[in-house]
Amino acid sequence: MTLMKKTLFLIAILLLSLTAGAQTVTDYSVSTEPAFFTANQQVKVIFDLKSFDTAANWGGDVYLWIWLSDPDVGNPSDQGTWANTADAYKMTYEGNNQYSFTFTPSSLWPNVDASTIKKIGVIAKAKDGTGDKKTSPDYLLDVTAPGVLEIQNSVTSPYIGTAGESLPVSITTSESADITLSLDNTVLQTTTGTSLDYTATLPQSGDHWLITKAQAGTEIKYDSVFVTIRQDLTGTLPAGYHKGINYVDDTTVGLVLWAPYKQDVYVLGEFDNWQPSAAYQMHKDGDYYWITLKVEKGKEYLYQYLVDGTIKIADPYTEKVSDPWNDQYISSTTYPNLIAYPTGKTTGITSSFQTAQTPYNWQVTNFTPPSPDSLVVYELLVRDFDASHSFQGVINHLDYLQDLNINVLELMPVNEFEGNSSWGYNPDFYFAPDKYYGPKNELKKLVDECHKRGIAVVIDLVLNHSYGQSPFVQLYFKDGAPTAQNPWYNQKSNFENPDAQWGYDFNHESAATQQLVDSINSFWMSQYKVDGFRYDFTKGFSNNFKPLATDPWGSKYDADRIRILERMADQVWKRKSDALVIFEHLADNNEETVLADYNKGILLWGNMSGSAQNAAKGNVANNNSDFSWASYTQRGWIKSRVMGYMESHDEQRVAYVAESEGYSNGDYNIKDVPTALKRIELNAALFFTIPGPKMFYMFDELGNDKDINVPSRTGEKEPLWSYVDDPNRTDVFQTYAKLFYLKRNYDIFSTTDFTYSLNGVTKWIKLNKNNQHVVVEGNFGLTDADLSVDFPVTGKWYEYFTGDSINLTNNSYMVNLAPGEYRLYSTQKFTKDKIVTDVPTVPVKDNPLQVWPNPVQNSLNLSADEDMNRVTVYSITGRVLLDKGFPGYGKTSVAIQADGWPQGTYIVKVITTSGKLETRKVMKY
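^ Glycosyl hydrolase family 13 catalytic domain-containing protein, sequence as received from the core. Prediction below:
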């Protein structure tokens, strides 16, 4: 059957952004006169630009961009360039925002055999075509071969009608033919010629086919339109049903869509061949649409909703989507056995349900996150952390993170976002993990494995905005913006500043939005056992529009915003009393003070990147490197809730700044990599010891010195695991790890009794608690400096990093510090100064495997009670250094050469002949 629809063909456009950026959704239509044309026939193509404001946005004039679909032929030679289309292709204004262009295909491509011209692509655009000054996606015109019979029907399939409706039908053929129009098996009208017009009376109920047959000589063509009759299906929502997917039992699924102001909804899927069949029209209960389906146990089904006959969306509450554009680029290694998209049967993103799924078997069911005062947060982008860009890839490196002594893993957005490769701040589905990172149970396993290691998990949620693929947006959308009926979104951005506009703004005053936000938060805490959330751009959670001139980033005090945010935090804590609630707020201090002190205390990002960069590169004059704003006391807060960071995903890397802009004095040159890395350690010593929660971005602990803007700011970055082979970089790792161990294990580093001087060439911090004291000091200058600090008490003080000690007979102590040098003195000797858990000596009778010496320098010895079948040695990054069988050794020691290993932590795994698996952690100095 041939189905050709050209005239008044409506295209729903989704200009999709793969990273955070502007997005539009617009309607336009294209028609041709005549409806059918050959390559040697003149044709007029007409663009109805409908809601396009070409005068304001395109400069008024509209140009045609035209090409042959054959890539070897391409564009006409006289068309000009995309940035400067030739004036000959300027279209004619027809009135009512319609533009036309008349041409003969064979004349545009005189060197092309006219018989090979089958399809012609067209776009309407501004002369320069920049930005969104074009229609999209491409529209293809079919070129009819001479003497070939084709049919066009004015009714688009599928058609949803009402009982007894009079439906006008117009049939056009490319050649004179005998034309027959039938409804199912009943002939409605016949004629001979190139057109047939008829008004059909639709049946009372059921599914039907409107069939056109055209015969010219021996050639016969058909056109079929599927017709279903809309019913008045009111019915009470079954008890216990909620929005989205309801698994009643292994063979029964209930689907619920909440859609105010809509008239009817059909479920589309393989069960109805993706057509709006009468059997799959949903029942209506107020603003709820619902249906109960009988399904095959354990089978995965893809489905969509067809709303009011024109809006096709995936279920907003689905936990998995099938994407026709991006799934093809997801490897089977990352996501095994990914269900295939139903190509040719539907369009757009589909949702998924499956009964009798194997539940994840949680190993840790009662994890308690650390207290806010002691948080050490590692911000991580799954895409760039491991080459596999997968949850499993992160799991493979958890021993590394455990050795780093972090206690919170903060994942940049992991719910479905548009495209595959993204930072994730362009969300579309809020309940579905992004498949580019792997199956949902791998994310659950990641959380579980973190909890096993004492690491809490926080996920980044983007609830300021959504993008055009979101079904919440698509349900109520017209003329490039959400409509006034949209329950969740504002019709325009809250900000006049274009740099603060992303996607479509949530209206957080709306009860529907608040309910959705609470559902999202509850879902991730209950289903994935996450320990809290980092909320992106919480300054946008208000409808008080911010003037561009006076407050472009909406930082001024906003009581309505505070009320909205406090309500959300309360609902999170209602569901999980110890949840970590973190805002990227960055507003004026008078507002942040209220939030920090509210209830359990909201954690607020504290951006200290400017000071950290200046400190690292040696620009310490005029308070340029002042760290004090990372202290809650400096801000006047009651609670320690400022989450200070020297860099997040957003900022240029501090090590890169040091190496590219570092100052020098004589032989001391910060641009030298080893020197720059020592400056990173110096920053860490005087920053992470400021009491209160701290955060850093992945690979900072190895001195990440890659330019954030290469290849682009949000573009993919290479994981830096090769850095663990560089002793200068593992020194940074060890400094970080040692500082974090102190922060996690000694409550003096969370004391409320502390003083500091953090704004000069030399900086110091004093901590006091329970008659214990710590003094941290460092030289941020370019020359040696004498630093005199009054120590709180006399007596013996221990230097943490060197293991040295001093005896003070008076409180004043002067130390000479080389540039970049730092010290940490304490009255208590901190015995835990390695970056890995000690391996205790265990009697052979209790443990068959002995590994010594630990730490190792040159040779590592192994012995066991029974034969060792295989020995594998891994670096902390998961890299295999040795994998070899050692049969028949019994208790005989096996020597492994370790002198070529870089400094760091290693994992030794031994499998004995009886199948026992033994694991040991070993340090190499």
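Residues 372-475+490-496+508-653+685-707 form a domain with the TIM Barrel fold (CATH 3.20.20.80).
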